[in-house]
Amino acid sequence: MLSLFAWMVPLAPLAGCLACTFLSLRGDRKLAHIPAITALLISALFAICLIAFGAQGDTEQGVTYSGFRYLNVGSLTLDISLKVDTLCLSLLTVVTSISAMIAIYSKDYMHNDPGYARYFAVFCGFVFCMTMLVLSHNLLMMYAFWEGVGTCSYLLIGFWFRKPSAAQAAIKAFLVNRVADCAFLIGILLLAFAIGKTEIASASFFARLDFDIIFKAVPFLVRDYPELLTTIGLLLMVGAIGKSAQFPFHVWLPDAMEGPTPVSALIHAATMVTAGVYLMARLSPMLVETPTVLSTVAWLGGITAFIAAWMALFQDDLKRVLAYSTVSQLGYLFMALGAGAIKDLMAVAVVAAMFHLITHAFFKALLFLSAGNVMHAMGDVIDMRRFSGLNKVLPWTNILFGIGAAALAGLFPLAGFWSKDTILSLLADASSDGEYGTQFSVLLGIGFITALMTAIYTSRAYFRTFYGAEKLPEEAGHHAHEASWTMLAPMAVLSVGAVLVGVLLGPTHAIANFLGNHSEHHEQMWVIVASTIVAFAGVGIGYFLSKMQPSTATSGAMVAFADFGRNRLYIDWLYNVAIVKPIEWFADLLGWFDTVVIDGLAMQIANVPRLCGLLGQRVQNGRLPGYTYITAIGIAALALWIATR
Amino acid sequence: MDTLQTIKSSVAHLSPAILLILSGSIVMAASLVLKSGNARDVHNQRNGVGSLSLVLLLVAGVLAYLRGAPTELGHGLFRFDSTAIAAERLAFLGGLIVLLMSWSTAPRAHLGEYYGCLLIIIGAIPIVGAANDLVSLFLGLELISIPTYVLLGIVKNDNSGAEATIKYFLLSAFASSFFLLGLSYLFGFIGSTNLEVIQHGYQLGGKLTSFALVLVMCGLAFRITAVPFHFYAPDVFEGTSLTMAGIMSYLPKVAGFVALIRIVGSGIGSSAVDIVIPVLFVCSAITMLVGNFFASAQNSLRRLLAYSSVAHTGYLLLAMTALLRDNAEANVLFSYLAAYAAMTLGFFACLGEIEAAGGKTMLVGDLSGMFYRRPAASVGMTVCLISMIGLPLTAGFWAKFLVFMGTIASGAKDPWSIAMAILMAFNAVIAAGYYWRVLSKLYEKSDAYVPLRVFRPSLFIAYTICVVLTVVWFFVPVVM
């Protein structure tokens, strides 16, 4: 029964994907949302059923529902199975329910687009891959769907592929992810190799990568190959931070905003980019043995959180503000996971990261959809310099964006407040540790500064967009209007989540209990008070800044600070000069070598079979006596050879 | 009593095959009587005989399904092991597609004879598969050969058709003589016609057994179009109808390989394996190279397909060595044959549809811009060609992969085995070259193209089945 539920979760979107693919082949522009929304609602329903019926069962330890044996060649066996435990269920529910909401929203947002059916086909394909990724029982299978979500992301970023910037952004996202995935794959293979050296070596190469077997092998690996385990951990971490757009791989995510806005909401804010965090959380029983990796993760998360918030402060494009904000919030998640470097805190760290992941998914999706409403009404203009005072035009969007922004800024008692608070008090706990205390004290400071900056840029963007003198760009025409109810209704659902999820899961310890961490963890009062103060101060500063003209900063340091922020800290420029340009130059060289030498050679070699065939054709002359003659010679030669051996 | 038991259980297990052969004979005989009546409506006759044959095949399939797994394998004339069941499945799968292809392409003057012969061929393959005696084996093989001569003769009533028929007939007789000569040596040496006894007898060894085995294998090489018995293939494929070429490329090949498994199957000892393997290696290498070299020099599509079928035989022979070495069930070989059935018959069905709609399919160039003239069939051909190349997302990928891996895994200690695997990879590249040439022709932009609009549901269904199987088998290779 539960096995059927578990299989229905990914299979429903797959069916939706196939139906929409069929519709897109027929050039449909009207019907594709029906199979897609139905499939995603079914998937969400079954995910919720899994929680409802599996809670009293043994899902806490994790159950593996066997599927089918995909491959069985010699010593290669590959089973496709689903591993269901509470960690997986918590993300699964978020993914399926939010994707269903966003699919409903997309119905009107994408209406009349020539690629309507294609959009829903890839959308469902993404949800299929994402749910399979979450449900994987095997690291290699996870990697396969990891690439699957990457491909869907590529297709959706480049959805309007005739626009050069969209095509460029899609390629950029794909290539940056490839670099990281390369390390990820090497890590996976090294891990399989290392497990093969231990006592519990399983016969099949693939079966060794089952999560259960990996965790069983960890004590042996720690005993025999501690350095190798750290290397593996670092390689897997590179994969995770690539997908989750952490420094130094963060460059692709802001550009990914070229895709349709609901896609940004779903893939590049709520779900896919959290896959890296999920991977780390999934492997936490292994990573807890490699504190070096986790402390690296914490540093990278801290750096990312800070620099992304810095860049977000100086963006004029509303969607880009949200994109940098996503990068920054993902940095928080990694900081939280990094606190697991202190062994006792690992369980709490996973809970904190998953908690913030869930709340963030709700309010960030809400914010992106609100930005989508703005874009829809403004005739695809999203530059905040060109519109303001929209609260009259978009009254509902104003409220919904306000709720999302308040949650992001961490205002009491919205969702972001509780989850951010959990992370900050976790870091405060970690800073009292002996070995890593200093590191986490610094990171706690970064956490507070970033929280302040988050509140500033969020409120600034909100007030700039919705208040002040009413100004509309000419692209909006005369019909700038509020979004339709089919767009507002799913946003309302998300806003309820953005308000309530935090207070329902956090203070009641519901999420901690669900994830199997029953140890009491005390919030520290000073952290709560300090973060509240920081949040309100940030909103105040943001309101003040929104009144100012952007270029009124006078002091030299401020100008430099703003200049760096606006130019993305010159990181993209640096990559371009230091990596892209040399590679392009080298590629030109190889291209020349390829056309002149390799192709020349290959064309000659390619002619050989044809020439041999033409020569041989003389034998095939259509005359029976010739045929029998050659056949007889052949048999005689064979018989002689065998007889004289 | 004992004999009666064997006969009773043999009849029970061979009931699908017996049903097909008997009904085939009845159809043939009935057509003689019925044709004298004044039934001039060819269309109704086509539908009538076509659906009758399909129903018969369906009934045979249901019978095979109801029969279940045998409790007693048997040691007499027939033996019902996994090879027998796999051969039956392959025959019915190919038979289904071939019957669908024949629906609109069977010669109108000889409908009864055509379907009768076809049913007998389909029914004879399970007999070969279950044969456990030289007599029953030869009986099964001749039950395939003789209707094939008839079919070749009636499907195309012109000079090239006659040439193809005569060539096939003479060369087939030539090969059968070698086969029989080999069998007589085996019988004379071992003193039994029972194949299990003969397989044990290989252990006694000696030059004479090796010689006999070579002769038998050469005789079977004709059925599977291995070099140097492949000469008839291009001439016959060019001379006969498309459907018949499809039949010739698949059904005799299944029979030949099943017979090969029966004679040098997994029961033979290691000393016999040492004799057989080098022969198979040499045959496989030459067959692959000749098939691919000649195919890449072809401009005629039919001859290209004939040589491609020769090349596939080379890969299958390699699969045969893996099978012998591992003492394994015939999984690798049969999954390759299944994938081969889907892609080759699918390709011929697509060509058949184009021809039925009025297009030409003799030369590779005739397919130029076919995607814009006949999109559905072109997409079908694309999938089949990709499967023939052996790229992922198609069954052909697993088929080639399994053979490749099987050869390496079973012959890990034998450098020649590794060399053969590499040669196979090398040949797959050459093959990709000429398949790609056909594939790129399909999508060539041509200025003046005329859409082909005539629609033949039976052919469409035939290649749809093939394409769906080709794709599905990639995702669920276990059932292949």
Written description of the protein model:
The complex is a heterodimer of chains A (645) and B (480). Chain A has 645 residues and is mainly alpha-helical. Chain A contains 24 helices and 2 strands. Chain A has helices at residues 2-25, 33-54, 86-109, 116-135, 139-157, 164-197, 211-224, 226-243, 252-255, 261-270, 275-282, 284-287, 291-313, 318-338, 346-377, 395-409, 415-430, 437-466, 485-505, 510-514, 525-547, 556-566, 571-616, 624-643, and strands at residues 63-73, 76-84. In chain A, strands 1-2 form a two-stranded antiparallel sheet. In chain A, a hairpin with a 2-residue loop joins strand 1 and strand 2. In chain A, helix 2 (33-54) runs antiparallel to helix 3 and helix 5 runs antiparallel to helix 6. The longest helix of chain A has 46 residues, at 571-616. Chain B is mainly alpha-helical and 480 residues long. Chain B is 78% helix and 0% strand. Chain B has helices at residues 2-35, 42-67, 82-105, 111-130, 134-155, 159-190, 195-201, 207-223, 232-239, 242-263, 270-296, 301-326, 331-356, 370-373, 375-389, 395-410, 415-442, 457-475. In chain B, helix 1 packs antiparallel against helix 2 (42-67) and helix 4 runs parallel beside helix 10 (242-263). The longest helix of chain B has 34 residues, at 2-35. Chain B is globular, with a radius of gyration of 22 Å. At the A-B interface, strand 1, helix 23 and helix 24 of A face helix 6, helix 8, helix 9, helix 11 and helix 16 of B.
The helix/strand order of chain A is: HHEEHHHHHHHHHHHHHHHHHHHHHH
Largest sheet of chain B: none
- The coarse silhouette of chain A is globular
Spans where pLDDT lies below 50 across 5 or more residues of chain B? none
When the domains of chain A are counted, the total is 3
How many β-strand stretches of chain A?
A: 2
What Rg of chain B, in angstroms, do the CA atoms define? 22 Å
Low-pLDDT residue spans of chain A: none
Which class of secondary structure composition applies to the elements of chain B? mainly alpha
Count of discrete alpha- or pi-helical segments spanning 4 or more residues of chain A:
24
Give the N-terminus to C-terminus distance of chain A in angstroms: 64 Å
Please tally the β strands of chain B and state the result.
0
Main sheet of chain A, how many strands, which sense, barrel? 2 strands, antiparallel
- Average the pLDDT over all residues of chain A and give the rounded result: 86
Q: Which H/E pattern describes the elements of chain B?
A: HHHHHHHHHHHHHHHHHH
Strand content of chain A: under 5%
The helix content of chain A, as a percent range, equals over 70%
Alpha-carbon distance between the two ends of chain B:
40 Å
What multimeric state do the chains show? Answer: heterodimer
Tally of helical segments of chain B:
18
Which class of secondary structure composition applies to the elements of chain A? mainly alpha
